[in-house]
Each structure stands twice: as structure tokens, then as C-alpha cells.
Amino acid sequence: MSARDAILNRLYQRRDGAISAPESDFSIVQAKQWSDEDKIDLFQQKIESVHAEVHRVSKDNWLDKLKELAQAKGLNNMLVPQQAQVGVDVRADWSEDGLPELLSYDQPIEGWKAELFSNVDGAVTDVRSAVAETGSLVLWPDNDQPRLMTLVPPIHFAILDAGQLKNTFHEVIVSGGWVQQGMPTNALLISGPSKTADIEQTLAYGVHGPKELIVLIRQ
Amino acid sequence: MSHNQPEKTAQSGVKEFHPRVHEAINNPQIRANFRKAMDGLMDKRQAAFPSDDELQGLRDLVAAIRLRALSKLPELLEKLEENLTANGVKVHWAENGDQACQIILDICQQKNAKSVIKGKSMVSEEMELNHYLEKHGIEALESDLGEYIVQLAEETPSHIIMPAIHKNTDEISDLMHDKTGTKKSRDVEYLTAEARQQLRKRFEKADVGVSGVNFAVAETGTLCLVENEGNGRLTTTVPPVHIAVTGIEKVVENLEDVAPLLSLLTRSATGQHITTYFNMISSPRKEGELDGPEEVHLVLVDSGRSNIYQDDELLDTLRCIRCGACMNHCPVYTRIGGHAYGYTYPGPIGKILMPHLAGLDDAKDLPSASSLCGACGEVCPVRIPIPKLLVRLREESVAGDSDHNNSSVKGRGSKRSTSESLIWKGWAKMHKSGGLYRTGTGAATVFRFLMPNKIGAWTKCRTAPKLAPSTLHQQVKARGKNGGEK
Q: Which of B307, B338, B357 is where one domain is finished?
């Protein structure tokens, strides 16, 4: 008998018989709701508490803020999506002197792994939604904004619209219809820059992923 | 499990449990490192739950979610397999750690892999995967910073969440200096940045990534990983092959179940409202995608879990979500540290899990290494009645043929001693018969001068109890004759 069948047999033929389980009552999770204004405040407070940098911007001036930050951080270059609207907007208005060079993630990783790991300074992405309760960005990486884009470069700029904020992760899954829609290759919550406390519980940032996470909330 | 006694840590060696405990207790560095860390973790957890109502409500919910998953375990495992397979993930089943190691080795060899990079996985520790791969010429490198430090030191994790918690900054600085040539420094940022550089090169070159799984969602065929560093994401994204390995109990039914589980896991473990990354993987790289592994495998490991599953009481053991709160709050763990236990999983959860994985005959000292203070049960996010299970395993370890005779705990009865069981049989008999009781207690009083001054472990730090010159019955009788009160 295969290991699979042997294990399943043992589980199906459980000695003490069927297990009765109570219904799961999610009301304690569903009860968590905040006003739109409070959601923004809570999101900002939570994600700043884990070392992310947050800027509230308007739909008109966000690009100016991004330019200012990209320059201030001294980036030589950064990855920008080619199809997502944020990428299109950045590319359409990025001509001033002193701005980092815009790069595209436009080939399979195998072709430029060393380059991505050593020579890319930052990345700009949009997000799918965000969670107020925990200060988390929700991303579904795709061909245009691949998985490593938000992981390998040392600085990640995430552009979030205030209207994308949900109360809880539970709400994101349920109201976003994740199950009905089918899960993507990779779905992600990002809450702050990469960190560790493995050396005597002392926090240090940027251990494997980005050292800085900068969120622009467009209102 | 047999290759090189995989259940035991390198620290255990040939030494028995009690000498190891004494060694740990007499090591002021270990004592100080653990005390400081556990005090900090207890405070952080408490601060993460400002509302006790919310905490208790969430514990009820996640305990119910875990129990619901267990109540349908075989069905959910089949559903998980079906959905993962449909998504393009290959599912493998292993009866024990040896089989799981073999499966992983086969995949590596098919891919002609020379180097494996690892995200944190306690199941891979349990089956000693690194040694196994290295024995077959494949280098396995840990990428979680704590695991990396422990691997440099040629040790094993002393905590399931914070593997290098037994070391302080100076010790880690010295270790990294000796093994990797970094400068000696107390600057944690510097040490972390150095480790980042060392490991980045390895990620670029690795042929296979091996990770654990925190929750496996049957409904969608999704593997969830909880982490802060990003090494888990690198491990599961950069190498062309990703192998996830997990125990069969990690499955949950629905995608929405993971939301409260995640919330309680991170807050119970380290007091974080959430970790930096929650990584949900449902398939290998799809057509047109530019990164991610071409192949994803899941290895489901039993290793005694299906045996625990048979018993209504022991079943609760399988609800565990590996947060480590029980060890953070354990007065024994805080004093002796993780290595003294001598097994992959230390602390209270280890004491109720390892006897099943390694057998009670092997792990015979674990269930009694507890004062039954109850702290572990009180903080457990999934309400595992750990003290009750410790008592059950103590009973199992001395059980005779007639006790729990349905039980199938591996190595049951291995601590049973003929003289002890005879004494208790006599005790029971004496207490059932008035005549025997009076004769017995009377005789004990008369011959009390024969009572030894040394009675085993009891008198190591206590004086031996002395029987009174007359029994309670005799004294009450005498008072009655004197007319009551006086």
C-alpha cells in the first residue's frame, strides 16, 4: 500500500469514531469596522509602527511626492510597471534632471538575476487593496508587477488609494471574492519593510527584503 | 525514524535528560539569555491583546476552526491534493521523516541540484533533512537569520520561533567572525547586513528552495507562509524548484479560516499585530509570468500524527499552530532553555508532541518535566489543554495492560515498575477495606522507626517525612474516650 493510502486509511478508520466540531462563528472578526477616515488613520498608525514610511497625497500631486522621495533617497534607478496605471503615469511624466532611471521588469528572472540582485535600487507598484486593522498592503503579483519586484530592490514604493482600504484581512478575502475568483499564483500581504529580531531580539530592518517601504496614500 | 537518531538534537548526545538539565541550570549565560527573552516575549504578547474579550473570542473561534479541520482531516487532505494538483503542484505523502527525506532527495537528484536554500521549517528539523541531504552530497543552507546562526554554530534551534534565542549578541558576533570573517561588533544592523550579503549570493545560485507551511488551505489549494525577513519569499520564488514540507495536520478547510488564525498566531508568538509577509502560494509559475519556480512540490509527512489522531483526548495535540507561546510562558523552559529537552520541539508543546513522534520509551522524561502550573494551557491560542495531556502521558508511561487499553501511544508503559505498581495495588486494596486499613496504618505507626531517611528524588532537596507516633484514627478514638472536646 502506498504511503498515501496507508495514511488516509488510518485517518478514515479513526478508532474513536467521528469527531463533532462546533460551527465557526466569525462575528468577532466581522464586528471590526471603522469609518473611512478612521481606516486611513489606523492603517497609517499600524504600518508606521513597523517602520514603514507613509505620505498622504492627493490624486494630483502624488507624482511630485514620488519624484521628491526618489530623489531624496538617492536612487540611481527603479523598476516601474509597464501596464499598470501607476506605471503609465510615472513614465508619462518623468523627464526632470536628477530623477532615477526607470527600469522595466520585462524578461524572465533567469535572464537578469544577477542584475536585479545587485544593481536595482527601488521599485514602484500599485496594490490590490489594504487592511486597516493590521496596516497591510495586499498584492497579487502578475506579469506586469512580478513577485521579486517588491522583494529584491532595497526600497519599495507602494501606491495605495484610500478607497482601497478594507477593515480586516477577513473582509479582503470574503468581499474580494477570492475563492470564487480563483487564487493567483501568489497572493501577498506586506506589512512594513523586511525585518528580523533573531539577534537577541533586537530589531533590524532589510534583512532579506526591502530595507524601506514607502506608502503613498492617495486621497 | 532511524538515520542518525533524527528526533534527537545534536545537543542531546548520549547524555540523559537530567544531566542536561543540571548543566543548563548551572550555566548563567543560558539562564540570563532565556530569562531576558521570555520576559520580553510575555510582555509583548500581553500588549498585543488589549481586550481580553477579543482574545477569548478569537481563541474560541480558532480552536473551533482547527477542530473543524481535524474533524474532516482525511477528506480535507484529499481535497487539498486535488486542488493543488489541478493548480500544477505535485503532492507527495510520507509515512515518516526518512521517507520525506528520500522524496526530497529524489526531486533534487532529478534536477541535478547541488545546493538547496531553506526557509524555516520545523518539520525539516524533525526529520533532519539538512544532514540527510549533505550525506548525499547536496548542500543545504538555512536562510532565516536565526537558523543561519544556529547552522553556523552546528547546533539546533532552541526555540521554534526564535531559533538562536539562546545566544546573545556577543556570542553571535564571535561566531560570525570565526565562521564568515565579519568584524567583531555589537551592532546588530551591521551583523544583519553582513548576513544579508552572504545569503543573497546563495539565493542567486540555489537550485532548490525548501520551505515549511503554516496553513494549507484545502478549498483553494493554497500554501501559506508567515515570516518577517523575506527569506521565505526568496526561498519560494527565486530557485527553479520549490519544495514545501509539512505535517498532515496543517490543513485548514476554507480560505477565510486563515484570517483569524494568522491574527492569533503572530500576536501569540511575538506580540506582533502581523508579520511583515504573509505569503500565499497556489501554483508554480504560469505561462507568461516572469519569476517564481517552474515546479512546486508539497510533501505531507505523517510521522506519528495519524496515530495521535485516533484518540479523542490526544487529538487536541494536533490543533497546535506552532506559535511558541507555551514555551515563552513556561517556568521550566525559561530556566532550562530549549536544548536541555533534547528534542526538536522543546517546551510544553514538545512535551506532549515528542512522546508520540519519538515514542514514550525514548521521550520518557518529557511529560514529567513540568510543574503542571497551567500557564501553557492558559495562553495557548487554540486552547490545547496541555496540562491535562501531560497527565495523560504520565499515565500512559506507567500504564499496565488494563489501563487505557484502547490506547496506542508508542512506548506506553515503558516507565512502569513492578514494585511501584505492586505498592499502588496494595494501597488501593488497603483503602477499600476498613480492617486492612486499620491494621496497615497501625503497623506503619509501630514500625515507623524503619522509615528510611532517603527516599529517591524526594529527599534530594527535602527531609524525609516522618510518620506520627499514632494514627489519626487512634487520636480521634482517644479524644472520644476523654469525653469529646479536650
A: B307
Cβ proximity of A40 and A57 under 8 Å:
no
Cell numbers describing residue A83: 501596464
Q: What residues of B are in contact with residue A204 (Cβ under 8 Å)? A: 188-189, 191-193
Q: Is residue B258 part of a domain?
A: yes
The one-character DSSP state at A93 is: T
Say which DSSP state B392 is in.
H
Secondary structure of residue B412 in the 3-state scheme? coil
Look at residue B182 and tell me if it is in a domain. Answer: yes
Q: What pairs with residue A156 in β-bridges? A: A123, A213
CATH code of the domain covering residue B35: 3.40.50.10420
Residue B377 domain-assigned (yes or no): no
Q: CA B57, CA A28: separation in Å to the nearest integer? A: 7
How many beta-carbon pairs below 8 A join chains A and B? 263
B358 occurs within a structural domain: no
In angstroms, rounded to a whole number, what is the distance separating the alpha carbons of residues B430 and B436? 5
Domains along the sequence of chain A with CATH: 35-218 (3.40.50.10420)
Largest CA-CA distance found in chain B, in angstroms, rounded = 100
Q: Confirm if A45 and A135 have CB atoms less than 8 A apart.
A: yes
Domain count across chain B: 2
Q: CB distance from B318 to chain A under 8 Å?
A: no
State pTM to two decimals: 0.93
Over the range B315-350, which residues count as b (16 or more CB within 10 Å of their CB) and which as e? bbbbbbbbbbbbbbbbebbbbbbbbbbbbbbbbbbb
Q: Which residue of B has its CA nearest to A5?
A: B93
ipTM: 0.97
pLDDT in tens, B4-62: 444 444 444 446 899 999 999 999 999 999 999 999 999 999 999 999 999 999 999 99
d(CA B433, CA B176): 69
Contact B94 A199 (CB under 8 A): no
Closest-CA distance of chain B to residue A211, Å: 10
Same domain flag for B229 and B81: yes
User: Can you read off the three cell numbers belonging to residue B481?
Assistant: 474516650
Distance CA A5, CA B414 (A): 31
Same domain for B230 and B98: yes
Q: From chain A, pick out residues whose CB is under 8 angstroms from the CB of B67.
A: 19, 21-22
Q: Which residues of chain B are within 8 Å of residue A200 when distances are taken between CB atoms?
A: 33, 37, 167-169, 172, 188
Domain with B272 in it? 17-307
Chain centroid to CA B99: how far? Answer: 21
SS3 category, A190 = strand
Query: Rounded to the nearest 5 degrees, what angle is found at the Cα of A60, between the Cα atoms of A59 and A65?
Result: 90
> How many CB atoms are located within 10 Å of the residue A149 CB?
24
Q: Give the number of C-alpha atoms closer than 13 A to the C-alpha of residue B161, restricted to the C-beta side.
A: 30
Burial of B60 (0-12, 13-18, 19+ CB in 10 A): middle
B275 contacts in chain A (CB < 8 Å): 191
Neighbours of B180 (CB within 10 A): 13
Report mean pLDDT in 10-residue bins for chain B, 486 residues.
Answer: 41 69 94 94 97 97 98 98 98 98 98 96 96 96 94 94 93 95 94 93 95 98 97 97 98 98 98 97 98 98 97 97 98 96 96 95 93 97 98 92 77 90 90 90 86 84 86 86 62
| DSSP code, position B210 | E
